[in-house]
Amino acid sequence: MDRSKQNQLKQNEKQAASAGDSSVNGHFDGMAKITNRTGLPLAGSGETSGQSSSAIENWREERTRSVEDNEMSLPSIAAAYTTILRGLGEDPQRQGLLKTPWRAATAMQFFTKGYQEKIIDVLNDAIFDEDHDEMVIVKDIDMFSMCEHHLVPIFGRVHIGYLPNKRVLGLSKLARIVEIYSRRLQVQERLTKQIAVAITEALQPAGVGVVIEATHMCMVMRGVQKMNSKTVTSTMLGVFREDPKTRDEFLTLIRS
Amino acid sequence: MDYQKVKEMNSLCNDEIVSEFKCRNGFAELSIETKKAVVQRVNETSRKEAEDESRLPLLEAAYTTILQGLGENTDRQGLLRTPLRAAKAMQFLTKGYHETVYDILNDAIFDEDHEELVIVKDIDVFSLCEHHLVPFFGKVHIGYLPNKKVVGLSKLARIVEIYSRRLQVQERLTKQIAMAISEALQPAGVAVVIEATHMCMVMRGVQKMNSRTVTSAMLGSFREDPKTREEFLALTKNA
To answer: Number of H helices and number of E strands within chain A?
Structure first.
């Protein structure tokens, strides 16, 4: 049953992809998928509330991988790693490499475990009604992701701030949202946006700001090999986008 | 046939030379092994440049299988050429297999009447954990006491590159660097310290963000004379 669901989801992805390159990560990309689904044109930032209903439907379909899928695909991934070891000229039979294909396959499945989790499972019970409308910031959340272009790690820090609108979120849930979206094959820009959109759709706050500062091993270990380079991306939604003072306050507070 | 050579290469630095070194404490006896080591070093190449191109399709297919096994959609725009990029990246990260110390060092050894400590520190090192195929990176500090022969300074960094761009274990990496320098120069002593962060511990498993692993290899007078070792460690300590 899980198998057929996965196949169907893959078909959905393929359809969506052919329909116009919208299934990013194959799964939940709030903006683009909604456009294809409902046919509504993408406007500015004011349509967040209109999207939320269909976006929540997305959440329910979001999972594409299960623990059983992991177990079933482990042998083929391990075999692929054995091929890679041979292709690099190493001897997969030497002591240090004997179980490496299985370890590497399990490690890679761990690094992409974001595909197994759904936002709605994580958040569903930690939204509280609180009469608070000042900025809430959780900063210096360590983030580890995989570059989807080179399959090499990205790591850095995420700073999240939001202005609640009578509803606040359990603080660790912000970190869990980061975990779900970062443990995937990612592009830093998309990751930032996905986190911001997820919080917006869960809480309908007055505004959300997400800043990610990360080091890309694909730039440090290979290619241009710039050791100290960092990439900073940010997404500002709602009041953070419209009001420069709010944005300033957020950026100052995460810097200190 | 390739695999046999590779086994020899890895066993060069794992089983044969190292185990003999363990049995005998003195540095002087190491020179007996150097002849064998030089002979084996010439055969160290296990992959020629030409083979790299021909192996790419195989690696690409393997990476496509991995992506599909992880549940990703390999037809989406961001992943279309990822198997090729990942295969090339992996080849780059393991390019140390087809470089030899012999080629790099052969012309940069100079006769210099210098017997004081020479240290090159804070050499950035990037390697791949051979157990999980996940990077580990850090800094290497190398010191040696020349015995009438000094080596070009960048050659020390190049030796680090050769041995680090492989599937490695940090302990073995440290020892290989130390052994390569001692075989090439026959100095009075060699010291290598590596301090690295292992992504396999940080990104997965125990997930300890700030942990670092320090390994060292002390040969010759660094092993025998505590004062020499102290001087090296004091000079490489970062304030």
So the answer is: 11, 7
